[in-house]
Amino acid sequence: CRLVVLISGRGSNMQAIVNTVRDHALPAEICAVIANKAEAAGLEWAGAQGIASLSVAHRDYPSREAFDAALAAAIDAFEPDYVLLAGFMRVLTPGFVEHFNGRLINIHPSLLPAFPGMHTHQQALATGVQWHGCTVHFVTPVLDHGPIIAQGAVAVQSDDTPDSLARRVLQLEHRLYPDVVRWLAEGRVSLDAMQRVQVHGVA
Ligand code: GRF
Prior knowledge:
35% of the residues lie in helices and 24% in strands. The chain is of the alpha/beta class. The chain has one domain (2-199): Rossmann fold (3-Layer(aba) Sandwich). The strands form two sheets. It has a seven-stranded mixed sheet with strand order 3-2-1-4-5-6-7, with helices on one face. 5-O-phosphono-beta-D-ribofuranosylamine (GRF) is lined by residues 7, 9-13, 86-87, 107-109, 170, 173.
């Protein structure tokens, strides 16, 4: 299973995925890590692991469409089965999403459909939810929607701050995303007629 990972910053989810693929000898290959800015810290880490790491800088393109076309071309060169968004902070055009239909996956730091968009931990605390977490889902043109593959939950504590909550959710992300990558690599994820995700062989 060929994978390309897209990042925008530190890339700790990408690192968790790379480490899991290697440590558990998953039938997967991280073919490339691509960032939308050259200074994304995760690029250097990926390069040091011997993974092709490159940037397609959104600032170099006059429009979202032009950037997405360049990004799609860079990804296509690696012929991935799946493209994993891991802290990739650009909204993608419908054309890009269509191009990778069924192959584009994202992790979002909330229990979707609650709290799409930014500042999810702050939103969770402001709303007073008792459970918060993260969601791995197929990407559709609507931001932070799309068929849900897996979720992980943490209990919100009365003394939580956005930072403390973010830390616990991030630890969960680092387990959840690699789990999903394993299911994808083993060919166990499919969509049913209702566009709901089925994961085969999970007890
Ligand atoms: C993660 O919380 C991800 O869910 C969110 O941004 C953060 C990225 O962290 N969208 P990292 O770059 O994977 O360390």
